[in-house]
Amino acid sequence: MDDIDAKTLRELSSWLTEKVGVEEHMPAFTSKNLFNTQQLQVIEAERTQFEKMKKVLEFLPRRGPKAFDKFCAIMNESDYDWVTEELKDKKAEIMGRKNEGDLEDDDNEELVENGKYGKY
Description:
By secondary structure, this protein is an all-alpha fold. It is built from 8 helices and no strands. Mean pLDDT is 86; it is low at 115-120.
């Protein structure tokens, strides 16, 4: 997943945990190979929908360059297109800030701290 997609998820993480239920999307997460078996088990083991979505958002940035698009496709296929619209709008906003030079160095430091860069 690229930096902009990861930042989009981070900036919308609270909103996503409040608005999106995970249980109804688990079959699609499985069939689309969005997560591996172990990750799916960890997600399912969480007690609340809030905790499950937090795990989804923790794993998603590490699931490859197409993970963001796969997640959006799953949302669209399950009539959660409004989630995809929110994600795309936020992504466009972030890209605009980047193009204007408004993204700060803290963003890069955050990516390093979260294991996005480096040997992890």
